[in-house]
Each structure stands twice: as structure tokens, then as C-alpha cells.
Amino acid sequence: MELLNAYFGELTHLVRQTGGHVEYVGDALIAFWGAPVRLERHAAVACRTALAIRQSWHGSGRSGSAASAPTCGRGWPCTPAASWRGTWGAP
């Protein structure tokens, strides 16, 4: 839990620093740019932020490279197209 809290804290800081919005869903963090506040070049900003996150994590020595360090799997799905945000389905 300590590893996840540290990782989410760092990701949240980097995302918000670049104008992104963060939502937490279980053990996942969802970040997006351009909503609810419009952001020009949101896809480019998101990609630069993802690279900064990757560099921050690998540069910190916490990527699981040490024998005693836990590994932390990450996925980076990116959707640069328009998307719907809101509540769907029955009230």
C-alpha cells in the first residue's frame, strides 16, 4: 500500500502540474487533459507528462530493478480522440 500511495502521489502531482485532471478508480489512476477545462494541444501535453512520469519513476530507483524492491506494473493506454465524460445508464 505504501508503494501505491507514493506512486499515485507522484503521478497526481505531475498530472496536475501540467493542467491534467486525476480520478482514482480502485487501484487505477485515470488522468486526462482538456476536460473539464479546455486545453490546447492536450494530446501533446499528456504524452510529455507520461514521459516525465516514466523518467521520474525510473530515475528514482523504484522501478523494481533492485532485487529487494517490489515491481510495479504500469499500463499507458492513450486515447487522443474525443471522448464522453459523465454518468451513463439508469439513475
Can you characterise this structure?
The longest helix is centred in the middle third of the chain and has 18 residues, at 42-59. Helix 1 (2-17) runs antiparallel to helix 2. Helix content is 37%, strand content 11%. Strands 1-2 form a two-stranded antiparallel sheet. Strand 1 (21-25) and strand 2 (28-32) form a beta hairpin. The protein has 91 residues and is of the alpha+beta class.
Biggest sheet overview: 2 strands, antiparallel
Identify low-pLDDT runs. Answer: 63-69
Q: In angstroms, what is the radius of gyration?
A: 15 Å
Distance between the termini: 33 Å
Q: What is the count of DSSP helices, taking H or I runs of 4+ residues?
A: 2
The average pLDDT is 76
The string of secondary-structure elements, in order, is: HEEH
Alpha-beta classification: alpha+beta
Strand arrangement within the widest β-sheet reads 1-2
| Shape category | globular
Oligomer category: single chain
β-strand number: 2
What is the percent of helical residues? 25-40%
- Beta-strand portion reads 5-15%
Which structural traits does this protein have?
two-stranded antiparallel sheet; alpha+beta; 91 residues; 2 helices
Helix and strand topology:
Elements: H1 2-17, E1 21-25, E2 28-32, H2 42-59
Helix pairs in contact: 1-2
Short overview:
By secondary structure, the protein is an alpha+beta fold.
